[in-house]
Structures are given as structure tokens and as C-alpha cells.
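Exam revision sheet. Question 4 asks you to relate a sequence to its structure. Input first:
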Amino acid sequence: MLTPPPTGEVGKLLGAKWKELDESEKKPYVDQAAKDKERADEEKQAYDVSLSVCGVRPTHTPIQC
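Answer key, C-alpha cells:
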């Protein structure tokens, strides 16, 4: 049975591979990350608004309205 490498080793290997890629190879991943960040920001804003409608500050556990 194979033992997987420690998580830190996997990160080092992936980081090294990432550095080997040229900009055109990285572009799809960078573009997807930008889209994902935009989506996450929109979802966070909607979540914060839903909390304010319920009268709950974002630092507290949300309640069901």
C-alpha cells in the first residue's frame, strides 16, 4: 500500500510545477480564480445584507428569518 506524501511536500511539489508554467499556461487558472473571487465577493455581500435584514451583525451566528 502506498503512503501519500505529507501535505507540505505536496504543496512544495505543486508550487515548483506552477513556477515552471509560462504565463499562457497559467492564464486559464488565473482567470478562473478571478471569476471565483468575484463570485465569492458577491455571495458575501448578499450574505451580509441578509444578516442586516434579520437584525444580526455579521460577526454573530446567523439566525433563520
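Marking note for examiners. The chain has two helices and no strands.
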